[in-house]
Design a protein that fits this description.
Mean pLDDT: 97
Largest sheet: 2 strands, parallel
Radius of gyration: 16 Å
Distance between the termini: 22 Å
Number of helices: 10
Shape: globular
Number of strands: 2
CATH superfamily: Hypothetical protein, domain 2
Helix content: 40-55%
Structural class: mainly alpha
Strand content: under 5%
CATH architecture: Orthogonal Bundle
Length: 188
């Protein structure tokens, strides 16, 4: 039997699939980075599993994560999203996704891509943590605080240091698989 990270609920097949195939894999595609950033922001106050179950609904509701389209959403589109039972119907989170798309586009223009901007914080190399137990893994770090402050200064919302650290884990900027987890070496 494969050992997996202790945070994982092994009774949920979709959660296992997410852990085994997605979480911690280095991501450099801007559209996918945007999607993960918005989904991590949507998680605020909720469990990740709640968002994971709605991920496909979010992708449909938010035009396949086309940040150019999302940046132009108007109040009628906001109302449509607020009526969509397939996503988290939180007005602040929906408005934030639109605002964050606008800021995301500005960052892309300034740096050439969001990927270049984001990964420059780690010199374009994954941080390899060596945690043995889930309890050792921090909720945020000095680096997630630094990125959070910069994104907020640029105008983004739902990008606090804890959300940003979860985002960094999800996109493989940091390898926070426990060292005994079979995925630890695979995502490097």
């Amino acid at each position: 039997m494969k050992y997996r990270c202790a945070w994982l609920d092994n009774s949920k097949k979709d959660y296992i699939k997410y852990h085994d195939e997605d979480w911690g894999v280095q991501e450099h595609n801007d559209r996918k980075l945007f999607a993960k950033l918005i989904l991590d922001g949507a998680q605020a106050g909720l469990s990740w599993y709640t968002i994971l179950k709605k991920r496909d609904n979010y992708q449909k509701a938010f035009d396949d994560w086309d940040y150019e389209k999302i940046a132009k959403y108007d109040t009628s589109k906001e109302q449509e999203l607020l009526q969509n039972a397939g996503i988290i119907r939180n007005k602040l989170k929906i408005k934030s996704a639109i605002k964050n798309a606008q800021v995301f586009i500005k960052i892309r223009k300034e740096f050439g891509s969001f990927d270049k901007y984001l990964w420059s914080y780690v010199d374009h190399k994954q941080i390899l943590n060596k945690f043995e137990k889930m309890e050792e893994i921090p909720a945020s770090t000095d680096l997630s605080l630094k990125i959070s402050k910069d994104l907020k200064k640029r105008g983004m919302n739902f990008v606090g240091p804890t959300i940003i650290y979860a985002f960094m884990q999800a996109i493989g900027m940091v390898n926070d698989h426990e060292i005994n987890c079979f995925r630890y070496n695979e995502v490097q």
